[in-house]
Amino acid sequence: MAQGSLIGQSLPRVEDDRLLDGAGCYIDDVALPGMMHMAILRSSDAHGRITALDCSAARLVPGVIDVFTAEDWPQDMPVIPMRLIPLESSVPFLQRPLAQGKVRYVGEPVAVVVARDRRTAEDALEFLELEIEALPPVVTRDQALAATGDALMVPEVGTNISAQYQIGRGDIEDAFARADVTLKKTFQSHRHTAVPLETRGTIAVFDIAAGKLTIHGASKVTFFNRAELAKAFNLRNDQVDLITSDIGGGFGVRGELYPEYYLAAEASRRTGRPVKWIEDRREHFAATNHSRDVDCELEIAALKDGTILGMRGQVRADMGAYIRTNGNVVPAKAGQFLPGPYRVPAFACEVLALVTNKTPVGTYRGPGRIEANFFRERMLDCLADELGMDPAALRMKNLLGAAEMPFDTGDLLPNAQKVVFDSGDYPATFRKLLDECDWDAPAQVHSDGRLHAMGLACFNESSGGGLYENARISVAASGQITVSTGSSSMGQGVETAIRQICADALSMAPERITVALSSTTLLSDGVGSFHSRSTVMAGSAVGQAAAELLDQARGEAGRRLNAAPAELDYSDGVFRVMGQSDRSIRLSDLSAMLSDQGGLDVESRYEQAPLGFSFGAHAAHVAIDPGTGDIEVLDYWVVEDVGRVLNPALVEGQTIGGVVQGLGDALYGELVYDDMGQLLTASFADYLLPTSTEVPDIRAVATGDYPSPHNPYGFKGAGEGGIVAVAAAVGNAIARAIGPAGDAICQTPFHPEKILTLLHAAKKGKQ
Amino acid sequence: MSDLQAIRLNVNGVTRAVSVEPSASLADVLRQELRLTALHLGCEHGVCGACNVLLNGRAVRACLTLAVQAEEAEVKTLEGLSAEQIAVTLKECFRKFRALQCGFCTPGILVLAVDLIAANPDPSEEEVRDWLSGNLCRCTGYQPIVGAIIEAAKRLRGAV
Ligand code: FES
Ligand code: FES
């Protein structure tokens, strides 16, 4: 088997066997001897001062072994830090594991009960007496900006603005001065979240005698979380292990360093028992990161022929009550991605992050991109209408071509990190989408009484990042190879991808390779799974570790076979002296011979290269019932160039899954708050997810035409392309379907009532 | 804590004596007392279908069923179906169609599909989508699951 021969093949998934037998091991499947259960008292007020918190009655409940609050924390309670895009101005808004003095959102942890079973712990919460003196809740961006006095989240800071900065490129004044047409609109992307089917959970085991803290149920960024937990509990990194398990969907929200990890660890430290916490679904809606919730005032300047001269605007993100580990990713990416895959020579944007009395916001698949793509792509359709142009032609005219690559995007991030689009021919890939969906065919006549239309959207998308990733490969005397990376399984086939790359790099059958992911016990260091980076970063690290391992093995093999390393052929785990097939040695034998040095065992760090950018486009065909406003998405197409394709079936699965998630987000799921900051949609009865009867036929095409020059395999991430332009494409389709009334399609989600209202208003206007 | 009640549960062909609280759900008893963890809890509210088990051959929500209600019945979980032809074929097709990613929804969907194919050996795509609409999956977008179930039904009819 030659190196490179496995790249591009749809190898079956390693994960399937155990998962299909029901033998997966998710965190709630883990039970440890002597394990206790934790329940968390959460604030039911959005904003208020804690005036009393009496735990004495709860302590007396049979089966309860401990109760604690912020007051009981042994030292200063740790502050949960920002991991990504940290800005100085956000620091005063960081969260601590338990509310201290004040509560700032419904769902904020206030006290912890530990009991012998989950039900006893949950029931005992009723006996905690919490008194809160209400403060004025801030639930909108405008309220956040206007807030003074008691309505401020942290009065000493004097503002509810947690970040504010300016980005841009080119001469924006000149662009608007030269324009034939300018348009200005306000857009909004609603608050929603990922809703993985498995809620969060963890088991903490604090062994004080051994000086060891073990956290089960970790994922995503285990090494960062380990370092922070070690700090919080005065331990060294090597005294803390984070153990990963199967997880029921990550999508960006799972595995961040949430308050509950600290609480479980502290509960275990106090009780000397393993402590398990499993989130229930209602809790999940209030406690796990929300996302999106960004608005944007956007103005565009163009020539009559459709040439875009410039875009300017303001992006305002509602961050909820605290800035969590994802820092300013959501607003920063919403700003950065506004100009998108187009030329846009001049661009100016102010980015604002605002704190409100709602659940904190973090990343959810496509953070900031979903928002930016929706704002920009809707604007482009409005511009096309204004100019009387075909929306496809307008896009074609402005997309960046191969000759313009690499394309320097200018200063679009607050930390001055340079971003360059690496490769691609955006018009060529867009053309493929237009052909797939038959855009240029004459409009079909539909006789079902509904309003039909197609909508388009383009995007590009970064992947990789996160400085570095580690991989370790070891060879057992039995011949079994074990590979570990700092990236963990997020439920989307990372194990399969890693095994495939490792097998390819070692040119051996995938069955001989075992993948052991991301528990901090397996590697000295690592980063994790986010930003569609697992294949790009961990995959590259695996390739590099394999090369180093083979290098080392080749030297050893040469010595043992009395041949120069260059005279050796390698394949399928065996070195052979060229032309002499009887003089050979296996990797496994070499490893056994080296057993006093630990065998063949290589850990390698792949350092970050610049990001790779994929480009893609979506098309949606919708039909709207003019009597009810009902929206049906009948057909959906995605074409994305993902650089070199590792496993086409994995990519297709990710894309189709992403589209359906995006459809649910665009059409149904919304986290709604009332004026008092109460979350009104905290169950599956109120927060709707797409089911099998509501999703259309989806055609996903991944092309590998433009490999990234920045990593050895040419991969670009493929985890987010399915979701990032759904709201944009569906919004454009709806707007085109309802005619002039569609101009007002500026906000997600698209609910039938809103469509009806628009249609009625348009009718009235005509009369 | 309320009084425990001794009941006998027939699970996967074996009768077991367990002591349960009268309000304990079948899901909790199967997962915690009997350590049958293939069924998952996604909502504990009857919406997601991750907890499906067969009760006298029909798929039901174990989170909404009391353990005491299952006393006279025959309970089957995915573990107990593993060797049965319908389940074996379904699993093959799930693998082939990539009908799972994180796998959390999968046991509940397999159990449902066993019931579906037993009741309707030749389901149309629309019928499969209708049955499946009571199960949530956040990863796959359903398309491959629908394909897998139709193909499994076909194979079981001997039509392939
Ligand atoms: S856990 Fe039973 S239906 Fe969701
Ligand atoms: S495979 Fe993850 S929820 Fe269905």
From TrEMBL, chain A:
<protein>
    <submittedName>
        <fullName>Carbon-monoxide dehydrogenase large subunit</fullName>
    </submittedName>
</protein>
<dbReference type="InterPro" id="IPR036856">
    <property type="entry name" value="Ald_Oxase/Xan_DH_a/b_sf"/>
</dbReference>
<dbReference type="Pfam" id="PF02738">
    <property type="entry name" value="MoCoBD_1"/>
</dbReference>
<dbReference type="Pfam" id="PF01315">
    <property type="entry name" value="Ald_Xan_dh_C"/>
</dbReference>
<keyword id="KW-0500">Molybdenum</keyword>
<feature type="domain" description="Aldehyde oxidase/xanthine dehydrogenase a/b hammerhead">
    <location>
        <begin position="21"/>
        <end position="136"/>
    </location>
</feature>
<dbReference type="GO" id="GO:0005506">
    <property type="term" value="F:iron ion binding"/>
</dbReference>
<dbReference type="InterPro" id="IPR046867">
    <property type="entry name" value="AldOxase/xan_DH_MoCoBD2"/>
</dbReference>
<dbReference type="GO" id="GO:0016491">
    <property type="term" value="F:oxidoreductase activity"/>
</dbReference>
<dbReference type="InterPro" id="IPR000674">
    <property type="entry name" value="Ald_Oxase/Xan_DH_a/b"/>
</dbReference>
<keyword id="KW-0560">Oxidoreductase</keyword>
<dbReference type="InterPro" id="IPR008274">
    <property type="entry name" value="AldOxase/xan_DH_MoCoBD1"/>
</dbReference>
<dbReference type="Pfam" id="PF20256">
    <property type="entry name" value="MoCoBD_2"/>
</dbReference>
<dbReference type="InterPro" id="IPR037165">
    <property type="entry name" value="AldOxase/xan_DH_Mopterin-bd_sf"/>
</dbReference>
<dbReference type="InterPro" id="IPR016208">
    <property type="entry name" value="Ald_Oxase/xanthine_DH-like"/>
</dbReference>
UniProtKB/TrEMBL annotation, chain B:
<keyword id="KW-0408">Iron</keyword>
<dbReference type="Pfam" id="PF00111">
    <property type="entry name" value="Fer2"/>
</dbReference>
<dbReference type="InterPro" id="IPR036884">
    <property type="entry name" value="2Fe-2S-bd_dom_sf"/>
</dbReference>
<dbReference type="Pfam" id="PF01799">
    <property type="entry name" value="Fer2_2"/>
</dbReference>
<keyword id="KW-0001">2Fe-2S</keyword>
<dbReference type="InterPro" id="IPR012675">
    <property type="entry name" value="Beta-grasp_dom_sf"/>
</dbReference>
<keyword id="KW-0479">Metal-binding</keyword>
<dbReference type="InterPro" id="IPR006058">
    <property type="entry name" value="2Fe2S_fd_BS"/>
</dbReference>
<keyword id="KW-0560">Oxidoreductase</keyword>
<dbReference type="InterPro" id="IPR001041">
    <property type="entry name" value="2Fe-2S_ferredoxin-type"/>
</dbReference>
<feature type="domain" description="2Fe-2S ferredoxin-type">
    <location>
        <begin position="5"/>
        <end position="81"/>
    </location>
</feature>
<dbReference type="GO" id="GO:0051537">
    <property type="term" value="F:2 iron, 2 sulfur cluster binding"/>
</dbReference>
<dbReference type="GO" id="GO:0016491">
    <property type="term" value="F:oxidoreductase activity"/>
</dbReference>
<dbReference type="InterPro" id="IPR051452">
    <property type="entry name" value="Diverse_Oxidoreductases"/>
</dbReference>
<dbReference type="GO" id="GO:0046872">
    <property type="term" value="F:metal ion binding"/>
</dbReference>
<keyword id="KW-0411">Iron-sulfur</keyword>
<dbReference type="InterPro" id="IPR002888">
    <property type="entry name" value="2Fe-2S-bd"/>
</dbReference>
<dbReference type="InterPro" id="IPR036010">
    <property type="entry name" value="2Fe-2S_ferredoxin-like_sf"/>
</dbReference>
<protein>
    <submittedName>
        <fullName>Carbon-monoxide dehydrogenase small subunit/2-furoyl-CoA dehydrogenase 2Fe-2S iron sulfur subunit</fullName>
    </submittedName>
</protein>
